[in-house]
Amino acid sequence: MTDLLLAGIDPGWSKADPASLLEDWRERLSRLEPLDAEVAAATATHGEVIAGAGDPAALTLAHAAALGRERGALTRALGELPNLPLERRKTRGRALNEAKRLLSDLEAAKRLALERAAENRAGLDVTIPGRRPWVGRRHVLGQIFDELLDLFHGLGYSVYTSPEIEHDEYNFGKLNFPPDHPARDAHDTYFVSDQILLRTHTSPGWVRAMEERRPPLRLVFPGRVYRAEQVDASHMDQFHQIDGLYVDRDVSMADLKSTLNTFARSLYGGSVRTRLVPIYFPFVEPGAQMDVSCVICGGSGRLEREGRRRCSVCKGSGWLEVLGAGLVHPNVFRAVGYDPEQWTGFAFGMGIERIAMLRYGIPEIRLFLENDVRFLRQF
Ligand code: DAH
Hints:
The chain has 379 residues and is of the alpha+beta class. The chain has two domains: 2-122, no CATH class; 140-376, Bira Bifunctional Protein, Domain 2 (BirA Bifunctional Protein, domain 2, 2-Layer Sandwich). 41% of the residues lie in helices and 17% in strands. It contains 14 helices and eleven strands. The strands form three sheets. It has a seven-stranded mixed sheet, sandwiched between helices. A hairpin with a 5-residue loop joins strand 8 and strand 9 (309-310). Helix 3 (37-52) runs parallel beside helix 6 (86-121) and helix 4 packs antiparallel against helix 6. The protein is elongated, with a radius of gyration of 41 Å. It starts with a helix and ends with a helix. The relative contact order is 0.09. 3,4-dihydroxyphenylalanine is lined by residues 201, 203, 243, 281, 284, 324-326, 347-349. Residues 144-378 form the Aminoacyl-transfer RNA synthetases class-II family profile domain.
């Protein structure tokens, strides 16, 4: 049907390629000639000006001169039609409408040609690779967690998660913090109510795991912890830790030491040295802090390349505290219903932000929570 209606009609130019009209507009003009020579002549002049416009502003002016709503020459001629005798009125009317269509098509074609030329002048280079969409990545702390979980998985540990909102009993009591003992003061605590708090460390996870399961156990406890700290460059009131717990028969400090050495070499490099320094934590006995040789100065306490200036990261000591550890206190076993004559175990716990800060030289702990991509995309 469509074919039939359009048979014999050949516009010579399709809207899909308006630029081609610029070459053959005169052909359409010649079809106007027999209809009304005067209109054809005027259209030829306006057409030349439109086709010859050098920039979009000139084109707009040329278009307005011919077809402008009030002052356009053809528009005005159309307005004159009623004053003409009937016969001329008919042919002139047709001619003017043809001319109008031709000139506005021509204007559109010219505008497109000008735009294309401008793009070419601006150096449009279709071979330039496209803009790559920015792809997100795992948060730097997530990356460190992944690395640690991978490492401990290789040593036979699985993950146990426990609540961030915790009972006082689990955060302190069953971990052998005596009531009103000053050890609680080291954990500035956010209390939700009298007996409910935001956990101050990931160690309460051991208590929950031990109450739920029977030994042997080999578990790690990753997660977020809260302390009512004064916020500064190295303290935040929320941060992350990971604890580890191993419970079996005949577990000794030697087992703890070899596990921690494996951990330290994997995380800080094969040449790192470690030492255990005795320290008090209520839930382990003996308790220790593990230090690693400073990753910045290599353990000398001095920066050789900077005139032997004192290393600011280890404060000249050559050592960095990286974790707390020890053998599980018999009272903790009692609190969860394990017989301390039968079961032994070790535990360790460390802060994740500190690992990232040491590894990447990050000077400011608040950066981890700001979600500024300029920071995050560096890792
Ligand atoms: N929970 C302790 C803290 O946050 C760190 C710690 C010390 C964890 C000794 C342990 C450990 O597992 O054995 O300060």
